[in-house]
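so ive been stuck on this for like two days lol. basically i have the seq below and the ligand is flavin-adenine dinucleotide, smiles is in there too. i just want the complex predicted, nothing fancy, no docking runs or whatever. if the output looks off dont worry ill sanity check it later, just need somthing to start from for the group meeting slides
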Amino acid sequence: MEDKVPSGRGEFKPVEIPPATFEAGSLFRKIGEVTAFKIHTGSNITDARRAFMEKAKIVVIGAGIVGLAIAAKLSELNDGVLVLEKNKKHGQETSSHNSGVIHSGIHYPNGSLKAMLCVGGNSMIYETCRRYGLPYKRLGKLTVATGETEIRELERLMKMGEGNGVDGLRMLDGNEVSRMEPNIHVERALYTPSTGILEPDDLMQHFLGRINENGASVSLETEVTGLKSTGSDYEISGVSSNTNFTIRADTVINCAGLNADRVAAMVGLDVDKLGYRQHYYKGDYFRITGKAPVNMLVYPVPKGAGLGIHLTPDMAGSVKMGPNAYPVKMIDYRVESSEEEFRKDVQRFLPSISNRTIQPDSSGIRPKLNGSEGGFADFVIRHEADRDLFGFINLIGIESPGLTSSPAIAEYVSEIYENEIRT
Ligand SMILES: Cc1cc2nc3c(=O)[nH]c(=O)nc-3n(C[C@H](O)[C@H](O)[C@H](O)COP(=O)(O)OP(=O)(O)OC[C@H]3O[C@@H](n4cnc5c(N)ncnc54)[C@H](O)[C@@H]3O)c2cc1C
């Protein structure tokens, strides 16, 4: 399908997104001695388009937003792109357990991958939304401060944001903040106009549509449990719809999110020595019932392992508080935090929270690289050719701003592929 770009000022025609139909599981069959994929890319087995594959050119492990963005991008120029996903549906893990915020890029050190890919991803997402008619709201964000220490931190964030190329940053005093958000009471705020929100599944559906259009495949209920280099390519094994499978691929891209360190270990990398061990940090959300107390995103200055409990309107106009950040060992999405912790944190900038009803809402789990030591850890996006793994690309520690960065991560990985791997 041809992209229809807005042809003039104010004139905008959304492009129809092709239906993304990757619901059915995968089957395998023996072709001679080789176990081959029979991939269903239809909404059910009867109407599915089927492809048989003994060897893929590129296998992407994980159909979260990052794996999907990468597969969509790589399949523009390459045949034989296959995404393997262990769950029954794409995006059931971190990509659907987050704030849905299109971050601006003020929080990450100058020159880091997080800064570069967040700022790049921010404008790419808005461009994609405008071009293809995906719903979004560019609400703007206030990062609020009370007291000297927090104000100094705001100034640091502003400088860092400007260094990262974030446009339109402005420091506001308490009166200006109250004019924008009458329920917020603080001394200062950093205004970030480019922060916004979208429904993450809309973006994932968009990537699925591109994957479909480009003739690439997504195999659901397909868990990778073994991965080894043969020297000339990779042998990937696992279980798909209760059937064991083996497939070979020239290139493997590890987008396994919370399992990315395990997948890296499968191929023989020493994840502890390389600093690839991921630590789970959970974040819970509560929802403020009734009328939204704010129109914009409102964040405190960051503290601890997350960005601080903030107020995020969603696309339906209701406001979520969260996420907090605490270490966990298991993936369990039940909300475990106390209402009191949330009220106390938010009360500092939204005093009226004491009169509002709040309800446990949802949670997400971050794959953090720095664990209990804290501090900044960048995304790891690395072609491991110098570790005897030519054609193996790792993506580890893809926590926030991974959603915002996803289209820019896809460009970045595509450049690695085209410049270093493709023959
Ligand atoms: C609480 C919270 C709030 C956040 N808020 C924001 C935000 O507002 N804005 C933002 O930009 N970012 C945010 N993020 C970060 C963002 O959600 C993630 O960076 C992003 O979703 C990561 O996507 P992913 O595709 O790497 O991982 P995932 O979504 O986890 O996808 C990985 C996929 O790999 C599959 N998989 C794993 N192992 C295997 C295997 N062995 N075989 C086959 N498949 C496998 C999984 O089933 C999963 O579907 C937030 C994160 C959290 C936790």
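Residues 305 and 373 are 10 Å apart (CA to CA). The longest strand covers residues 243-254.
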